[in-house]
């Protein structure tokens, strides 16, 4: 919802959760995305462009 609502407060109002809860989940999601990207780059030896393509595919798949 953050990309749609554009702010932490907007998401908090829309979901009925506190701003602190939204920030905590945002931090968890960001940390997870960073770990996945690091895994792709180091363990699978993918290039930055390949990792970007994977994230683009994931983003498009979520819209379906």
Characteristic terms for this protein:
64 residues; mainly alpha; 80% helix; Mobile element protein
Short description:
This is Mobile element protein. It comes from Methanosarcina siciliae T4/M. This protein is an all-alpha fold.
Q: What's the SSE blueprint?
A:
Blueprint: H1 2-5, H2 8-15, H3 19-42, H4 48-62
Helix pairs in contact: 2-3
Note down, in words, how this protein is organized.
With 64 residues, this protein is an all-alpha fold. The protein has one domain (2-62). Helix content is 80%, strand content 0%. The protein contains 4 helices and no strands. Helix 2 (8-15) packs across helix 3. The two termini are 16 Å apart. The model has no long low-confidence stretch (mean pLDDT 86).
- Residue stretches low in confidence (pLDDT < 50, at least 5 long) are none
Number of domains: 1
The proportion of residues forming helix, as a percent range, comes to over 70%
Radius of gyration: 15 Å
Order of helices and strands: HHHH
The computed structural class is: mainly alpha
Organism: Methanosarcina siciliae T4/M
Protein name: Mobile element protein
